[in-house]
Write a structure and sequence with these properties.
229 residues, alpha/beta, globular, 9 helices, 4-stranded mixed beta sheet, 11 strands, 2 domains
Length: 229
């Protein structure tokens, strides 16, 4: 019934046919031998694999078995891509990914690279936090043109509310764990975003760039009229 049995994993081999998106690997915490086995099986089936929260040591282990594996140290994404992943249809539709500060970029890159892997076009707008409000205001035109905006911010997390008041399109808010003591590892930003008075904002979990990129791609596909991007 679409399952491949391992001693340590049961892979969902029919997920893409059901949902339009293949299974993605959460690498953090997995034993090396398990991770290699999962990557090999998914690569054999799909010709590509995408994993999040990987370490450099995990990349080195996977690369020994799969030489074409690629790793991005900023986003911690470990992937094996097919030729099709480098082809992007440009019909003018795009996702805007914004950060409050440069410290939020690792989470933003997880979101951006997730969307790109799934076939979306992404525009990055980094370091436009509300402490210099003119920065995000100067980007209003490109934000309006996006099919949706991913707003990534730590500290008090006000960026999503500001963007939500500037654009007509959906905003996906991503709280990050960046901040001093009373930010409580991202709880401050999370609560700000959940309690935003701006309309059209959806909030994902703390540091969950992948989740934001996934939802943004669903919106992108609807906006572009291409269900598989």
């Amino acid at each position: 019934m679409g399952h491949s049995d391992f001693k340590y994993e049961e892979l969902d081999t029919t997920r893409e046919s059901r949902t339009g998106f293949p299974e993605v690997v959460f690498c953090e915490g997995k034993k090396d031998e398990y991770l290699v086995g999962i990557y090999k099986k998914l690569l054999e089936k799909d010709g590509k694999v995408f994993g999040t929260r990987a370490s450099i040591s995990q990349y080195e282990v996977v690369k020994k078995s799969i030489p074409e594996a690629e790793y991005d140290e900023v986003s911690r994404i470990l992937k094996v891509v097919s030729a099709d992943n480098h082809k992007k249809k440009d019909d003018g539709t795009f996702i805007a990914v914004c950060t409050g500060g440069t410290a939020d970029i690792p989470v933003a890159e997880e979101a951006a690279q997730t969307a790109e892997y799934f076939g979306a076009r992404v525009e990055r707008i980094y370091d436009v936090g509300v402490s210099g409000i003119h920065r995000v205001l100067s980007k209003q035109s490109i934000l309006q043109d996006a099919c949706c905006v991913i707003a990534v911010a730590g500290m008090e997390g006000a960026l999503a509310s500001v963007i939500g008041g500037l654009v007509r399109n959906p905003v996906i808010a991503v709280p990050t764990s960046i901040g001093y003591g009373a930010s409580f590892g991202g709880m401050s930003a999370l609560l700000t975003m959940i309690n935003s008075c701006a309309n059209g904002i959806t909030v994902v979990n703390i540091d969950n760039g992948y989740g934001a990129g996934y939802v943004a791609t669903q919106i992108y596909r609807l906006a572009s009229g291409n269900e598989s991007a």
